Each structure stands twice: as C-alpha cells, then as structure tokens.
C-alpha cells in the first residue's frame, strides 16, 4: 500500500442537529493528485476546512505526515479554500510580500512562486485589474510560498473560462511533477478527470467511494452510479 500523506478517520461534523459530514475516512497517498468529488453541498468544503483547522470536527481524527494532526502541520500545507483573499489595491508582488513577511520568508521566494504560476510578467499590476483566472493563480502562489508538501485546493476552477481551466490543469500537473501532493475538490468532472489519479466521492456528507482511477473507466458514469446509490464503497 502506498504511503499516506494524510488520512481522516470517521470524521463527523454537526451544525446544531444537522450532520454535515458523516464518518468520512479519506486516504491520500503521498505524491498523488486526489480528486475529492461530489455535488454542491455534499460536504467537500466542510471536510477540507476540518483538515486545515478552519473547523473543529465533532468526532473523528486526522493523521497528517505520519502523526496525529497538530497546528504545526499547517506549515507543511498550502491551502486555498474558496476564493483567495487578496488586496485589490496592491500588486501581485505586494500581496505575496504581505504573506512572506508573516511567515518569515525571503523576498526571493516571491519571484519563485510568481514564475511557477506564470504571473512574473504582471507582478507590478494591481490585483483589482486581474482576471478571475489570474486571481486564482495568485491565490495558489500564496499557498505555495512555504514550499508545501501538500496543496489543498477547494473548487479552484469556479468562475474560470475554458482557457483559465486549461491553465489551472497545466499548473496542477507541474506542481505534481515537483513532488507536491494535491487534494483538489470539485463538482465539475470534466475539470478533474484529466489530471487526478485517485478519487473520493462524497454525497450527502458520506464518503461513498474511494480508490485509484482506472484509465479505462468512465469517471462520469462511475460518479453517477455512486451518487445515485448504484455502487457503494
């Protein structure tokens, strides 16, 4: 069995009496691109917020980097949950500089991540003039500042046009080639089918399926069967 960089065990999350996440046990192999799939409202974002410490689980545990989850593990993660929080009146460079100073990184790292996300030529442009795709790539650049081993992206293609989605796919592939493990959540199958090698399918707050992608299998057919209850984990 492949080494796991992250594992969740029977995660639950209640909002009052409503159970949003029910016994979700993810297994993320090191070096994989893991697609966390599910309809809108399935529990994907809630699960990722628990993994990244933005929410406390009601029950269950998280194993990260070989040990029980601790806040120090966040230094080894890069996270983009929902839309990136950016300062529109600042340039791409200045936005990254704010974060670099907060975590004590040298300015040289800013230029490295700008080159990785292909924003080096617009580093002096105010972010308010960026396209949606450029803002998403800048958000990923912020997540990459600390040289993470694990990158978590929650619905990163939301609002992107086809060209933006293609650039995002190319970026994720390039990060994977650098040895970064990626967890990518989405409800758009066409977005992830070309890049993921492992998937988990969440529906109604429950993990219905998890496994390695079979290149000969139709992901859309599998997804519909799982979500509609034809196939169970």
Automatic annotation (TrEMBL):
Coiled coil: none annotated. It comes from the Bacteria. CDD domains: ABC_BcrA_bacitracin_resist (cd03268). One of its GO terms (molecular function) is ATP hydrolysis activity. Pfam families: ABC_tran. The keyword Lipid biosynthesis does not apply. SUPFAM superfamilies: P-loop containing nucleoside triphosphate hydrolases. Residues 6-229 form the ABC transporter domain. PROSITE patterns: ABC_TRANSPORTER_2. InterPro entries: AAA+_ATPase (IPR003593), ABC_Gallidermin_ATP-bd (IPR022501), ABC_transporter-like_ATP-bd (IPR003439), P-loop_NTPase (IPR027417). NCBIfam families: galliderm_ABC (TIGR03740). Belongs to the ABC transporter superfamily. This is Lantibiotic transport ATP-binding protein SrtF. It comes from [Clostridium] cellulosi. The lineage of its organism: Bacteria, Bacillati, Bacillota, Clostridia, Eubacteriales. The gene is srtF.
């Amino acid at each position: 069995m492949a080494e796991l960089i992250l594992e969740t065990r029977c995660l639950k999350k209640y909002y009052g009496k409503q159970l949003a996440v029910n016994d979700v046990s993810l297994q993320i192999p090191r070096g994989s691109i893991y697609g966390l799939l599910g309809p809108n409202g399935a529990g994907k974002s809630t699960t990722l917020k628990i993994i990244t410490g933005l929410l406390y689980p009601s029950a269950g545990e998280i194993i990260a980097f070989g040990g029980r989850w601790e806040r120090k593990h966040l230094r080894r993660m890069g996270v983009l949950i929902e839309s990136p929080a950016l300062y529109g009146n600042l340039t791409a460079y200045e936005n990254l500089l704010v974060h670099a100073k907060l975590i004590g990184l040298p300015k040289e790292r800013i230029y490295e991540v700008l080159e990785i996300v292909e924003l080096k030529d617009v580093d002096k442009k105010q972010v308010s003039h960026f396209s949606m795709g450029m803002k998403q790539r800048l958000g990923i650049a912020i997540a990459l500042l600390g040289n993470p081993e694990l990158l978590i992206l929650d619905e990163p293609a939301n609002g992107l046009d086809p060209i933006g989605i293609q650039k995002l796919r190319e970026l994720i592939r390039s990060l994977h080639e650098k040895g970064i493990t990626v967890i990518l959540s989405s409800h758009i199958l066409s977005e992830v089918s070309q890049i993921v090698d492992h998937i988990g399918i969440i529906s109604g707050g429950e993990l219905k399926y998890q496994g390695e992608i079979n290149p000969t299998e139709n992901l859309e057919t599998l997804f519909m069967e799982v979500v509609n209850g034809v196939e169970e984990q």
